[in-house]
Amino acid sequence: MNPIAAVSPPSATEIPAVEVPAVIDSPETASPGRGFGRALQDFFHGTEMPYRLALTRIVLTFTLLFPTAYRWFYSREIFSTDGAGISLWSIYSFPMPWLEPNGTVVVAIHSIVILALVASCVGWCTRSSLILATTGYTYLNLLDILSSLNKSSAIASHVLFFLCFSQCGAVWSVDSWLARRRLLRQGLPPGLIPGPALGPRWPRRLIQLLLATIYLSAGVTKLAVRAYFTGEHLQTWMLSTIHTPNLLGSYLALHPSLVIVCAYVTALWELLFIFLVWKPILRRVVLPLGIFFHVLTCLTLGLFIFPMICVSAYPAFATDSEIDWLRRTAANLWNWIAARLGFGIRGLAALGRSLPAIEPAWSRGAFVAALLGTGVGGVALEYKLDRYGLRRPEGPYKLQELDPQEVAELVTPTRRIEHEDKVLNFDVGSIFVGGCLLDRRTTFHQGETLRVQCGLVPPHENMWIQCNLHDSQNRMVDTIGLFLSCDMLRALFYYNIGDCVMPGEYSLVLKIGGDEIMRRKVTILPRSTACAAN
Amino acid sequence: MKRWILNVGICGYLAALAFGFLCVACQVQFFSVPMYFLTFNMYAGWSGYDAKMQIIGEGQSGRFYVLSPGPWGEFDPYSRFSRQCYDQAFEYGRILMRPALAHTQHEPILRVFVVEQEYPKKFNLTDAQYEAYYQKSKQKRIYSHTRMVLSPEGEILTQQPTWLRFQDNLSIVDNPRLVADATVTRPFIWSAQQPPGPGGYPGPDTSLGATLERLGSPVAE
User: Fold this and answer.
1) A198 pLDDT higher than 70
2) In chain A, which among 117-156 make CB contacts under 8 A with chain B?
3) In chain A, which residues have their Cβ closer than 8 Å to the Cβ of B77?
4) Is the CB of A209 inside 8 Å of chain B's CB atoms?
5) Which tens digit of pLDDT belongs to each residue from A348-395?
6) Are B174 and A458 in contact (CB < 8 Å)?
7) How far is the alpha carbon of A365 from chain B, nearest alpha carbon, in Å?
8) pLDDT value for A346
9) Which of B99, B120, B129 is the closest to A83 by Cβ?
């Protein structure tokens, strides 16, 4: 039993301040002399207070509510046989039509999954709601590979699965509040109310190992991707709009040198995570780096749900002292709120005390009733909303007709890619690092070397690419040409600016197959140091 | 719960995770539902082009109609692209057209066209960014490519490779010597090529990881 500071029974005018008992877990570190087997046993089968997983439960289910609730209105269209559901097993040539529901059934399931996620978040009938949320959420995602199933939902399914086996509902939950209330109503002094049940450690351990494996797999994947360490991979993803709009991606994508640094740091962090996160002193670096990495994926790639799902598993790595700090902070916050909203909180507390004690069976009964009501209500509401418009007064919708001009543009012979569209960037500078231009300059002195980089996007054919130097009257002063094979993504040009190139305004002109693609203006200044006389 | 059951479960799960990791590391693909949950190969590819998918039906009268998204409105799962645009190989037009054909009033549809529309990702820059960097106004070019022609029942009448692969093939057949070599050695009876697919090893690395196969993100795989 954990020591809980005794407090006087709450009166009608008092708002009970929250006291935070110390977190006492079974020791995590093996004492000297214990065998590896016993340490391993303790690693997985020790017991602990479930605060970490409670935090994971709250954050993860809250996160999953966003995509799940958003898709409810479209569930008939995207999940069912009445719409355009495309299941994972069907594309893998394992047809199981008996697993693919019709529109009504999928709407009912979807409604129940939303309730289960809400119940899991607030901790009401936590284990049952988590089981429902896990199976329902995973099942729905499997029915729609285009717009619901993805690796982030797969990760969420794993974590939800482990939460089902934990005691994450024993704290910070409606269940724990009801249990405490029941005991208080039975006359048990608050000081004698037992603390939350200890839970096994293995669900948290498996979540830790899952997260570490995910990062390691992602890092290894990047090692095999062509053009990851040269920046094109990240550049194009930053420019993509298939995710939600992002703030920084388009700015960063035009600076390949920065992108390459990000690429190396990311790969290094992902590959080393699994080895470094177990040491407390290194964990303090690795986890904040992870949060920073996920924030950057949000700002540069437009990912929201994926980083939140990953970060929701981070509390699994929290230490006892961090959990203690978090609990004290939460308690202080509650006390602060109670002090400022005293009247409202007292009213709620009085209302709570006036209600009869809720037995576990009643709570479960109410939960089942809520599930049934939600399922039926969801179906009724979706029927009323009539996504397909079948019950409109004017009858079903008519197909939208296309303009013949638009049709002609769509159904047209495929044309070749324009040369201009093969070029992603064209920059001038003076320093190449790792095959990438580090700086951008437009002013050079005689005697310096101009370095010009042209980045291409595949597919492109073998081609002849030129970088010409034109003077202010657009006369070609010098030219460099390169053969570029179809697998090359970058063309590098070096211009030694000798004394034969007079100071003045010039342009570097990029040409592919004789077509001018881009120009960059440069200024050539006189030699900065005099030539030494022999 | 009995300890030995737990231990077997834990060991089994860790073994499965390790197997999934090894598959990713060795780039071996098993097309099965459990393996999808055990392999974490996010951002395994990239492309310099964004794509949209149009599914249009040709009616008996010669008029064309939009079949996806349906007339009731589109579903944008992540950004402003409709759901069908996340079909990365543009192969599920036969399923995506079903709701519109089943739940709307329309004349008999003769053929359905699945059209890819591709454009360079640099056109996703804002107008100001584009003009500042490329020093010219943005004139977005979209490349249309008829990926499949289907019957109203979903039977494939004709199909072409995806646009990326089509363009790559064009760049290869630009080489007359290569074309001549292929033509000379082509047998009279052309045996079917073995495409990579479910249960099959992908074969030699014909995809350069960037050009031909559009591999998705954690969001859109």
Assistant:
1) yes
2) 142, 146-152, 154-155
3) 71, 146-148
4) yes
5) 666 666 677 778 888 999 999 999 999 999 999 999 999 999 999 999
6) no
7) 26
8) 65
9) B99
Enumerate residues 260 to 319 of chain A having a beta carbon within 8 A of any beta carbon in chain B: 301-303, 305-306
Residues B130 and B30 grouped into a single domain: no
Q: Is residue A256 part of a domain?
A: yes
Residue A330 lies in a domain: no
How many beta carbons lie within 10 A of that of residue A267, not counting itself?
A: 19
A459 in contact with B, Cβ within 8 Å: yes
B179-216 b/e (C-beta count within 10 Å ≥ 16 → b): eeeeeeeeeeeeeeeeeeeeeeeeeeeebbbbbbbbbb
Model confidence over A433-470: pLDDT tens digits? 877 888 889 999 999 999 999 999 988 888 999 999 99
Residues B31 and B58 in one domain: no
Search chain B and give the residue with CA nearest A518.
Answer: B134
Average pLDDT over residues A39-59: 93
Domain extent, residue A487, equals 421-525
Structural domain that includes position B10: 3-36
Which letter does DSSP use for residue A418 in this model? P
> How many domains, in total, are found in chain A?
3
Integer Cα distance of B107 and B110 in angstroms? 9
Question: In which element (H, E) is residue A237 found?
Answer: helix A232-239
Q: Which residues of B86-95 are buried (b: 16+ CB within 10 A; e: fewer)?
A: bbbebbbbbb
Residue A453, classed as helix, strand or coil, is strand
Low-confidence ranges of chain B (pLDDT < 70): 1, 189-221
Partners of A400 on chain B (C-beta within 8 Å) are: 65-66, 71
Other Cβ atoms closer than 10 A to B217: 24
ipTM: 0.86
> Of all residues in chain A, what percent carry a pLDDT higher than 90?
64
In angstroms, the separation between the Cα of residue A226 and the nearest Cα of chain B is: 6
Q: Kindly report the pTM of this predicted structure.
A: 0.87
Residue B134 lies in a domain: yes
Q: DSSP string covering chain B, please? A: --HHHHHHHHHHHHHHHHHHHHHHHHT----SHHHHTT---TT----SEEEEEEEEEEETTS-EEEEES-TT----SSSSS-GGGG-TTS--HHHHTHHHHHHSB-PPEEEEEEEEEEEEGGGGS-HHHHHHHHSS------EEEEEEEE-TT--EEEE---HHHHHHHHHHHT-HHHHHHHHHT--SSPPPP----TTS---S--S-SSSSS----TTT-
The per-residue pLDDT for range A262-316, each reduced to its tens digit, is 999 999 999 999 999 999 899 999 999 999 999 999 999 999 999 999 999 999 9
Judge whether residue A345 has pLDDT over 50: yes
The confidence score (pLDDT) of residue A500 equals 85
